[in-house]
């Protein structure tokens, strides 16, 4: 109650100041957005939009998407496994690993299809707009939850440039250069180069290197605008980036109450209390190379503007890291594992061990690794953890390569037309290759490739490799017309049709024989397809209507309501996923056969994972208001919404004796409802205050894949999010302005899985008998809050900024990946405090 009273007092003080200060020229700046493909005032657009201007981007220190995601209610982001593998939740609808995104990402009018394209350097950006709710009619495929629109600075005729350099803790360094100006008559150009690197927040206890979550990013982007004549303009964009970073930086936490009863509480532990130790002998590495190019033509004809956009992008990416097989003794008998166990174990010296608690934690707390045959205990004892410092856990290798080409042609009526309309067509060809391989760490190094033969340095024992080809065709349009002087109706629609093919690329080979848990072939699908795994095809289509009503109820009050349908195409998991899970987790024996030898008989998890997953369709209703008070010195926007989702695509992670596997499943019916508001207030000539609050109420209505989860909240849908900030500006000397800014963010408790405490069987029943079930009630992320601070000094052509992120060093989890059949979760820590200084010079 005391905290509530404090907030009330602060709010009353702000309101009183707004009401009594009589400086007419102090108002909130008008923001023009392109949310409906036209230039409109933010307060008049009947869509929930959060916009960041160039000045706000600079003052808030927005450099990557996570920086602006934290400044909005009901929007969260997870970024942990590797660079670009982000999950963004907008109003409780979360983008899914290994599936399509849930929002459209548009840069300078070009829809970015590459899944890694979102989490990139935001260089030379003039405005960011975040639209919430279904936006498919205007912003393309997969805009189920919304759209994020980025506009970069347009080149001018006059030559200008900017140089920026900076440094911070954790070995952080950055440098960038932007040049812009006229190239020829009617031709303007702009180029930006950025280089950023950091050692990260965490170090490797085995190697001592600060290389766990490191990042190196070099990006080059260019833009050329050619005004061919008064009617035709061509906009060329191109870019290249090279990224190196850490990958798969997780620790494991058990959630098996029966183990806790016998061995101690660490086997059923709150994930938020975990003390992280990274000690991988295969340090995670992620390498990416991205190339992109687009050309946009704008042709102004009588009564209509014609826009054509052709774009191409290519991503080449691989990941290499430790594996998980040590937990199930997969490579226990290899020479490399035996050698490592002799010196890298946490058994006490009294037991003949090495007492390496620095690598594993306390003995059996919860992991216990014995020295092997050279010590007091035999093989196949102890409890090993995943991602260990020994060769016993093998390795994993992944590739995600994608190239896509798209073409959009759009017709737009003139702004002064009696009825405003937009119509267009869209086509795309997408080729995506996904490789997940798992094999032995023999201590002889690694080949960065999917398949390595039995005589190779890191032979493959399990492999998924698929080529996914997608052909997309869509037509879309929107009509906007007035039904009175102050009321408008907009009717929009989009029809998408996606043809998807997948073909297996795994060679029909046996494993190395080094993994004692291997089922034989490196892909289980060959068991039922000895002559080759057949190609698969499917077509997914959906009409997505949207109707919006808006009313200018008063000079400073606009109301709107909308109803719309969102669509995300179905797709394929890696071929062999269903067969592998049936083998280890399912009782697939005929009813007249008591036991057919499959280990899954002992688990019988009743999963419904298939190699193909369904399309996702959502229906959303929203009512919102946009208000201004005190002569435009206080702006308040708010909305209530309700969304029903059919076949919500959900990522699941499976770890077991086979290694690991990633699949997409579906939640049959999901309901989400909520409220959000944001405000911006100019308190005095020098001080502005801004913030927002979001509330979500979600429920899983039906989930045939995991029926026990029905009634639980939706994954990655925190019940509340808050943000609050303040900015103070003043002149400190002639020609020098100081800007000080604070940004506070609060994210409520979050579940990451559909199972949130319901008991289900684990793979441990294969090895230790029945009754070893999991309980994910302690696998929710606790609520947390962070505080960022910046102070800048700017003159006409130079500036310096001192900044800090998470300045209170709040400890929180970035991500939790529950693996119920494993009997635990894989967790990644959030970023620690960071600080630094940046200098810039403009010319």
UniProtKB/TrEMBL annotation:
GO terms classed as biological process: iron ion transport
InterPro entries per record: Beta-barrel_TonB, Beta-barrel_TonB_sf, Plug_dom, TonB-dep_rcpt-like
Residue ranges occupied by any TonB-dependent receptor-like beta-barrel domain in the UniProt entry: 295-807
Protein location: Cell outer membrane
Domain called TonB-dependent receptor plug: residue spans: 42-147
Family label: Belongs to the TonB-dependent receptor family.
Protein name as it appears in the record: TonB-dependent receptor
Species per Swiss-Prot/TrEMBL record: gamma proteobacterium HTCC2207
């Amino acid at each position: 109650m005391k905290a509530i009273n404090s907030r009330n007092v602060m709010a009353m003080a702000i309101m009183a100041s707004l009401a009594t200060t009589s400086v007419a020229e102090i108002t909130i700046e008008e923001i023009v957005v392109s949310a409906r493909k036209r230039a409109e005032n933010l307060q008049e657009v009947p869509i929930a939009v959060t916009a960041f201007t160039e000045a706000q981007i600079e003052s808030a220190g927005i450099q990557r998407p996570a920086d602006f995601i934290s400044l909005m209610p009901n929007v969260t982001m997870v970024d942990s496994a590797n660079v670009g593998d982000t999950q963004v939740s907008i109003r409780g609808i979360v983008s899914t690993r290994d599936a399509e995104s849930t929002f459209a990402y548009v840069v300078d009018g070009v829809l970015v299809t590459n899944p890694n394209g979102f989490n990139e350097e935001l260089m030379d950006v003039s405005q960011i707009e975040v639209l919430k709710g279904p936006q498919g009619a205007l912003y393309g495929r997969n805009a189920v939850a919304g759209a994020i629109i980025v506009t970069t600075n347009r080149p001018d005729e006059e030559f200008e440039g900017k140089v920026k350099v900076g440094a911070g803790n954790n070995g952080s360094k950055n440098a960038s250069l932007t040049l812009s100006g006229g190239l020829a008559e009617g031709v303007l150009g702009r180029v930006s180069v950025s280089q950023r690197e950091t050692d990260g927040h965490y170090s490797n206890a085995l190697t001592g290197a600060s290389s766990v979550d490191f990042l190196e990013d070099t990006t080059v982007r260019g833009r050329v605008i050619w005004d061919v004549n008064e009617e035709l303009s061509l906009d060329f964009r191109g870019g290249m980036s090279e990224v190196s970073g850490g990958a798969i930086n997780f620790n494991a936490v058990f959630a098996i109450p029966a183990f806790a009863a016998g061995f101690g509480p660490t086997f059923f532990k709150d994930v938020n209390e975990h003390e992280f130790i990274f000690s991988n002998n295969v340090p995670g590495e992620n390498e990416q190379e991205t190339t992109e190019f687009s050309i946009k033509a704008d042709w102004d004809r009588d009564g209509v503007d014609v826009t054509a956009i052709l774009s191409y992008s290519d991503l080449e990416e691989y990941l290499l890291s430790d594996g998980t097989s040590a937990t199930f003794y997969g490579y226990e008998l290899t020479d490399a594992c035996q050698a490592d166990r002799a010196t890298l174990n946490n058994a006490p010296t009294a037991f003949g061990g090495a007492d390496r608690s620095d690598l594993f934690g306390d003995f059996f707390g919860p992991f216990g690794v014995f020295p092997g045959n050279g010590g007091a205990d035999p093989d196949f004892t102890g409890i090993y953890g995943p991602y260990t410092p020994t060769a016993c856990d093998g390795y994993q290798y992944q590739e995600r390569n994608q190239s896509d080409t798209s073409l959009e042609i759009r017709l737009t009526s003139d702004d002064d037309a009696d009825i405003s309309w937009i119509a267009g067509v869209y086509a795309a060809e997408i080729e995506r290759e996904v490789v997940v391989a798992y094999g032995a760490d023999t201590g002889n190094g690694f080949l960065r490739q999917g398949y390595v033969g039995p005589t190779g340095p890191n032979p493959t024992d399990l492999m998924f490799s698929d080529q996914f080809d997608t052909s997309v065709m869509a037509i879309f349009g929107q009509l906007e017309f007035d039904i009175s002087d102050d009321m408008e109706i907009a009717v929009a629609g989009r029809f998408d049709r996606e043809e998807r093919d997948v073909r297996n690329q795994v060679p029909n080979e046996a494993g190395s024989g080094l993994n004692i848990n291997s089922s034989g072939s490196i892909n289980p699908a060959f068991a039922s397809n000895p002559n080759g795994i057949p190609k698969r095809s499917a077509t997914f289509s959906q009409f997505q209507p949207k109707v919006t009503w808006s009313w200018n109820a008063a000079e400073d009050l606009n109301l709107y309501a909308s109803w719309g349908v969102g669509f995300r195409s179905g797709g394929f998991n890696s071929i062999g996923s269903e067969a592998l899970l049936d083998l280890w987790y399912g009782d697939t024996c005929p009813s007249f056969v008591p036991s057919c030898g499959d280990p899954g008989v002992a688990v019988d998890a009743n999963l419904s994972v298939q190699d193909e997953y369904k399309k996702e369709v959502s229906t959303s209703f929203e009512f919102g208001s946009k208000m201004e008070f005190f002569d435009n010195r206080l702006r308040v926007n708010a909305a209530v919404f309700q969304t029903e989702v059919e076949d919500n695509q959900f990522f699941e992670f499976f770890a077991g004796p086979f290694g690991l596997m990633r699949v997409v499943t579906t939640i049959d019916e999901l309901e989400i409802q909520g409220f959000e508001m944001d405000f911006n207030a100019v308190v005095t000539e020098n001080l502005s205050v801004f913030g927002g609050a979001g509330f979500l109420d979600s429920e899983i209505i039906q989930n045939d894949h995991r029926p026990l989860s029905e009634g639980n909240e939706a994954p990655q849908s925190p019940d509340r999010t808050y943000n609050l900030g303040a900015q103070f500006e003043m002149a400190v000397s002639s020609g020098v302005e100081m800007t000080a800014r604070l940004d506070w963010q609060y994210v409520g408790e979050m579940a990451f899985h559909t199972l949130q405490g319901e008991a289900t069987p684990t793979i441990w029943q294969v090895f230790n008998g029945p009754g070893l079930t999991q309980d994910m009630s302690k696998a929710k992320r606790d609520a947390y809050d962070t505080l960022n601070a910046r102070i800048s000094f700017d003159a006409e052509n130079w500036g310096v900024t001192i900044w800090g992120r998470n300045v209170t060093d709040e400890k929180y989890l970035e991500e939790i990946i529950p693996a119920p059949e494993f009997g635990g979760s894989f967790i990644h820590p959030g970023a620690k405090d960071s600080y630094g200084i940046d200098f810039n010079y403009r010319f």
